[in-house]
Write a structure and sequence with these properties.
The chain is an alpha+beta fold. It is 40% helix and 19% strand. The longest helix has 18 residues.
């Protein structure tokens, strides 16, 4: 009998492999990405203390209503969430991040997140 590993399990294996090499510090915290079928979650984490410094996701009320009413599509939603995260990082005087792609391929919406953060002045 062949046991097929699900795509999400493969992603988790890749994420563990990436996390062995990436550490967030107080001067350069880690920007973690998680995406589901409907939503996107970004968080900035200091791994030395194990605390989330700031976050942004598509479940915020105004974004959720825009997306639910189909005023914006998913790719535009991703850009909006990334720009909100960049603004929140600037408020905390965070200018450098380590980008943790979460086991996802660095293309499409994941690449858009990194590019948007760079455009907003955050070094990724």
């Amino acid at each position: 009998m062949i046991n097929k590993i699900s795509r999400n399990e493969k992603r988790k294996i890749r994420h563990k492999r990436i996390r062995k090499k990436i550490k967030g510090t107080p001067t350069r915290p880690r920007c973690n990405v998680f995406r589901s079928n409907k939503n996107i979650y970004l968080s900035v984490i200091d791994d030395t203390t194990g605390k989330t410094l700031t976050y942004a996701n598509s479940l915020e009320k105004d974004l959720r209503t825009k997306y639910k009413n189909k005023e914006i599509k998913y790719s535009d939603l991703v850009l909006e969430v990334a720009s909100r995260l960049a603004e929140r990082c600037k408020q905390l005087n965070i200018t450098k991040l380590v980008f943790d792609r979460g086991g996802y391929k660095y293309h499409g919406n994941i690449k858009k997140i990194a590019d948007t953060l760079r455009e907003k002045g955050i070094q990724v």
